[in-house]
Design brief:
six-stranded antiparallel sheet; Immunoglobulin-like; rod-shaped; 334 residues; 45% strand; five-stranded antiparallel sheet; single chain
Length: 334
């Protein structure tokens, strides 16, 4: 019997070279499951150590029965990262620790998501932070059922501006926290409706002028006072009261020439800018007389009050004087 004593004493020794092996960790249902292999036959127990700083420091976390080869850690939190190692013990010694293994849990769901329309083309989102995320994914839906990603932000960023929305539309949002452990459940759904697009105002064209040309046409010019017009509409009147549209010209146009007009008549013109949603006020009215006797004569009527007439040129005065002299020399008829 005494011969067995050394053997028994030897069997109580846990060699440092025989730690538990094959330690592995898996995450399931918000808890960490550990498994390992144990080749020691003289242990009286197994100790699980845990670290929450990436393995820099360990503390004894759980003491288990001898030959135990699994453990479930239920004391973890969403978004947390944990590192584990295991060693065997008996009454007189301990084994070396096993190699380490780590597990990261997916974050908890983001909360308190709020959506607010800032304009016809922007919706602002805000939400509450969670622990352990590395990013947030923002998802959007137009029916509240089918969602697609519209953007991501980094960890601890708690707002997002969606500038890809349209006017007069309702959008639904949810936010999902992400880390290396997986994706969190989606946040609450928040919705917002964008207002109608503001109506772009257009300025009235200015400095409209009309002049009769030698080719029997009338040329119009004006100043472009807009950046949002689709074009300009030109209207004419033969009595200065009743107008009708004669042409539409494209954006940024500042001149127009009519077809041939009947001579010996006076024409009044006005112009306004337009786009898909609105029209401007009319320009000032420009007036010109057509015909050889009125060649070059131009009138421009102010939009508020008064008229201005171009003074006769020296050429016109000389021509009139020659006609007068010629007529005065004709023999009179009794």
């Amino acid at each position: 019997m005494s011969a067995s004593t050394p053997s028994a004493a030897a069997s109580s020794h846990l060699p440092a070279s025989s730690p538990p092996t094959n330690l592995a960790a898996t995450v399931n249902n918000g808890q960490v499951n550990l498994t390992w292999s144990d080749s020691n036959t003289a242990e009286t127990g197994v100790v699980v150590q845990r670290s929450t700083d990436g393995g820099a420091t360990f503390t004894d976390y759980a003491s288990l029965d001898a030959f135990t080869q699994s453990f479930t850690d239920t004391g973890v939190t969403a978004g947390g990262s944990y590192t584990y190692r295991v060693y065997a013990v008996n009454d007189t010694s301990t084994s070396s620790p096993s190699s380490t293994t780590s597990a990261t849990l997916a974050p908890a769901a983001a909360t308190s998501l709020v959506a607010a329309a800032a304009s016809a083309t922007r919706i602002n989102l805000t939400w509450a932070d969670v622990s352990g995320e590395t990013s947030f994914r923002i998802e959007r839906s137009t029916d509240g059922i089918n969602f697609a990603s519209v953007g991501t932000v980094n960890a601890n960023v708690l707002s997002y501006a969606d500038t890809t929305v349209s006017a007069s539309a309702t959008y639904y949002y949810r936010v999902i926290a992400i880390n290396s452990g997986g994706t969190a459940p989606a946040s609450n759904i928040a919705s917002a409706t964008t207002p109608a697009a503001p109506v772009a105002t257009l300025n009235a064209p200015s400095n409209l002028a009309a002049s009769w040309q030698k080719n029997g046409r009338i040329r119009l010019t004006w100043a472009d006072t807009n950046t949002a017009e689709s074009g300009y509409r030109i209207e004419v009147s033969t009595d200065g009261v009743n107008y009708s549209a004669v042409a539409n010209v494209s954006v940024n146009t500042t001149s127009y020439q009519t077809g041939r007009v009947a001579g010996g008549r006076t024409y009044w013109y006005r112009v306004k800018a337009y786009n898909a949603t609105t029209e401007s006020a009319y320009s000032n009215v420009a007036q010109t007389a057509a015909g050889a006797a009125a060649h070059g004569a131009t009138l421009a009527l102010g939009s508020a009050a008064g008229t201005t007439t171009a003074a006769p040129t020296s050429k016109h005065l000389a021509w009139s004087l020659r006609v007068f002299n010629f007529v005065s020399k004709l023999p009179s008829r009794r």
